């Protein structure tokens, strides 16, 4: 007999919400990090010249 599914097993609503929130957090974090790196690169190039 298989154990009952856990909260993050992929079959519950909580698992779907957790997966969706983790995905959206990753998108937001990635876009902020890319913006920061772009600004840091341009400011570093400005100070070198």
From TrEMBL:
Transmembrane segments: 12-32
Keywords, comma-separated and alphabetical: Membrane, Transmembrane, Transmembrane helix
Lineage, opening ranks: Eukaryota, Viridiplantae, Streptophyta, Embryophyta, Tracheophyta
Protein's name according to its UniProt entry: ATP synthase subunit e, mitochondrial
